[in-house]
């Protein structure tokens, strides 16, 4: 009776009545309902909720679909909450202990309603697929550099492996989230301040093998010790990643790449260390921006911050690192260490290590002091930098001399690039 009633309503109204669509994020599949036990593969991101309101958590093995797992206050009133996972999640043992005939009837009713209304409306699900396909097409040509030798290659995945999100994915303390090479899309993608991250890494968390598409929001936030391995940002939003850990913590970024930035690629707001290795980046459209910036005017802004960049290729950035060699409140200066970095920019000089005076929010602007070499703040020499000129010498990468000799005696090689 319930089945016939739903189908009849769908036909009469001429709209999609997929009861489960609003109870799971677009691109997700329901695996069990409130109070039932589900089983998922290791490190699977699970959404819990209904009516387009969800709480996300990375889970492994069996769990109860409810507040006992997702926390008090996460249940959405007004109906049955559901637990769902990405339709492309590779889980070999997704199961529900709830196999009652009532659940089966409900699933059949939902399917019938979708089928009966498919001609009348594209529905939220097909809309999501169209959006994902558009995003995949929009980002397929943005990655201009190959992975650093020894790192996994970037793979341009299609719409089937694009995951639309409605909220940030929080990776709990001490756990690892493996994106399986899928593309994740959240919101915006512009330079607006205050956007949420696509991934929020808690203390000791790790993120691996993920692509962040052109709806990049504020990329990745790390609130303590964390690691990011083989993550590719196809089109930067506010920033690629932000290190927010306290003194003594380290955010490690190894392999992967970031593209199409206009302002900052890596932002450092905490007081710990940001260590970047075997990374590639290219702001080929804007031909500007900073690869790394120690915050110039954060609330309670203070140092020291430490950044280490090794074995990396960075194209079309005006500044590689911007660090605070002094703070207006007298806190210790930052320190940047660069080793074996390859740089290309054919439309103006690169400031490899630019120094600033950091200030606290509301007390003026952070002022630039100039580029430095081989100082307590800028731990690098010309031997640590390789400038890339165009084959034949028609275009050259300029390096700002700062406090060193002009021209800076960096290593030079020639390559062909269509800039």
TrEMBL record:
Keywords: Calcium, Lyase, Secreted, Signal. Pfam families: Pectate_lyase. InterPro entries: Pectate_lyase_PlyH/PlyE-like, Pectin_lyas_fold, Pectin_lyase_fold/virulence. It catalyses: Eliminative cleavage of (1->4)-alpha-D-galacturonan to give oligosaccharides with 4-deoxy-alpha-D-galact-4-enuronosyl groups at their non-reducing ends. Its cofactor is Ca(2+). It is an enzyme of class 4 (lyase). Residues 391-410 are annotated as: Disordered. Residues 1-21 form the signal peptide. Its main location: secreted. GO terms for molecular function: lyase activity. Its EC number is 4.2.2.2. It is found in: Secreted. Belongs to the polysaccharide lyase 3 family. PANTHER family: PECTATE LYASE F-RELATED. This is pectate lyase. It comes from Uliginosibacterium aquaticum.
